[in-house]
Amino acid sequence: MDFRKNFELHRYEVSNDIERQRNSGGLKLGYFYALMNIAKELNSLVGPKKAEETWINYLAFLRTVDDHKKTPYSFLEWDEVSGREHLQSTLQEGGAFLTFHYGFVRHNMVTIGQEIRKGYYRGGLPFYLVAEKNTVSQEKQLDKWESIRKYSRAELLNSQDELIGLKLYSHLKKGGCFSLFVDGQTGFNTDNYSLELPFLTSKIKTRSGIFRILARAKKPVCLYFMTMTEDYKSKIVFLPPFEASNDIQHMAEQVYTPFRNQLMLQPEQWRFWDRHHAQVLSWENEGIYNPHGEKTQLDWISKPIGGFGQLGMNLQQSLVYSLS
Question: Is the pTM above the cut of 0.90?
Answer without folding.
Answer: yes
